[in-house]
Design brief:
Number of domains: 2
Order of helices and strands: EHEEHEHHEHEEEEEHEHEHHEHEHHHHE
Number of strands: 15
Helix content: 25-40%
Strand content: 15-25%
Shape: elongated
Bound molecules: adenosine-5'-triphosphate, magnesium ion
Oligomer: single chain
CATH architecture of the largest domain: 3-Layer(aba) Sandwich
Distance between the termini: 32 Å
Length: about 400
């Protein structure tokens, strides 16, 4: 029996004139991601997208998993394709839904007939299929108010589909429809969650990571790759730019007052990230900062970092508690990777008493002790690129 996936469009249906763009972007992401699993026909009709496998050996569990990670989808369901006559629909329902029917007590059938040439009206289809299911599974009763499962029969122009229940989609809007942004990614819990959240709002991502070998290890960088691979399940493929940051950090340690280390380092991170971002066509930066979480995330410290930024900085976690952030990181499967213990460059040379209320003029004065521009240029010239899929 042939199984397909039916997708209900999410927030995109609200987008008026832009709707076509959103729908096209969604079709593109679906096609690109599903292509790894085999050949599919993906098409939109009547506010539903159908995903139809074209090879016999395609694993539909994998396909459903893939679909569940694509933004722009409110809900989807797996359905079987039935012969387009009443007998065919009944038999398909009984066979395809057998496991489900065995495990429940009450159900109802909802039929939708968009092919008006089909000789039975929706209520007739519902009644016929309902009686047939009770005949096959005599323990079942119909409950039209609170059924355990709603069996849906859709009679469309080209085929009839039978399904039970809806699966929640990833929500959000399709990646790429909101432009491109650059996430500053560390190996911590927060930045992968921030990346996921902004991709969910339709942004295509690139990632910048600062590494300070030998203070940070090869393994620490691999951890970041692993985190981004998990983010990419939602955001689609992206490029990761690794910036060598050792020289800059060593010079900060050598030349600046200790209590300014962190804030100056963060300003230089933002400066370098926005140059890479601009060069790659990204229009905003994304960080995993959360207000008050650490000394560099106070209003005063953020004001000092933002003072170097010439593009908007998105901080989707700003108002969230650690617990709320962890909940999302578990959901997107990054938590277990994030808590592996590898040094981040932020944790080398951390001052004992970082300034929580830095004064911008003082910060600039300290930072100007560095021979900044050549170092920034060297760091950017030695950036390494990786494809994350
Ligand atoms: P995270 O859990 O994301 O590491 P954090 O709470 O540990 O965040 P910080 O270490 O102060 O906070 O970093 C704040 C933000 O700065 C991070 O969320 C990330 O966006 C960025 N950042 C920190 N370290 C790096 C790094 N090595 N490379 C790129 N960006 C970084
Ligand atoms: Mg960190």
């Amino acid at each position: 029996m042939k199984e397909i996936i039916l997708i209900k469009l999410g927030e995109i249906v609200l987008k008026g004139l832009n709707r076509k763009n959103f729908e096209d972007a969604l079709l593109r992401s679906l096609r690109r991601r599903l292509a790894k699993l085999g050949s599919f026909k993906v098409r939109a009709a009547q506010s539903t997208i159908t995903v139809e496998p074209m090879d016999d050996d395609i694993d539909m569990d994998d396909a459903a998993d893939c679909v569940s990670h694509v933004f722009g989808i409110a809900a989807f369901s797996r359905a079987c394709v039935a012969e387009k006559d009443l007998e065919g629909i009944k038999q398909a329902a009984a066979e395809y839904l057998a496991d489900t029917m065995e495990s429940i007590k009450t159900f109802k059938v909802e039929a939708k007939r968009s092919d008006k040439k089909f000789p039975y009206k929706s209520p007739e289809i519902s009644a016929e299929v309902g009686s047939y299911l009770i005949e096959k599974f005599p323990h079942l009763t119909v409950d039209v108010h609170e059924p355990d499962v709603i069996v849906t029969v859709e009679v469309r122009d080209y085929a009839a589909y039978v399904r039970a229940g809806l699966i929640r989609g990833a929500g959000g809007i399709p990646v790429g429809t909101g432009g491109k942004a650059c996430v500053l990614i560390s190996g911590g819990i927060d930045s992968p969650v921030a990346a996921y959240m902004m991709a969910k709002r339709g942004l295509e991502l690139i990632a910048v990571h600062f590494a300070s070998p030998p203070y940070t290890s090869e393994r620490a960088e691999e951890k970041v790759v692993e985190l981004l691979e998990r983010v990419a399940k939602y955001s689609g493929r992206l490029k990761m730019y690794t910036v060598p940051f050792t020289e800059i950090q060593e010079q900060i340690r050598e030349k600046c007052k200790e209590d300014y280390f962190t804030i100056i380092m963060r300003r230089l991170m933002m400066e370098i990230a926005q140059r890479i971002a601009a060069d790659k066509g990204a229009q905003a930066l994304i960080t995993g900062e959360s207000l008050g979480q650490v000394a560099s995330q106070t209003i005063g410290a953020i004001a000092c970092t933002d003072a170097v930024c010439r593009m908007p900085v998105f901080r989707p976690l700003l108002g969230m508690d650690k617990e709320e952030i962890i909940e999302i990181s578990r959901k997107i499967d990054t938590f277990e990777v994030s808590i592996q213990p590898y040094e981040d460059c932020c944790t080398v040379f951390t001052p004992k008493h970082p300034r929580t209320r830095p004064v911008l003029e003082k910060v600039i004065e300290e930072q100007n002790k560095l021979d900044q521009e050549p170092m920034i240029e060297r760091a950017i010239a030695n950036v390494r690129v990786r494809d994350i899929t």
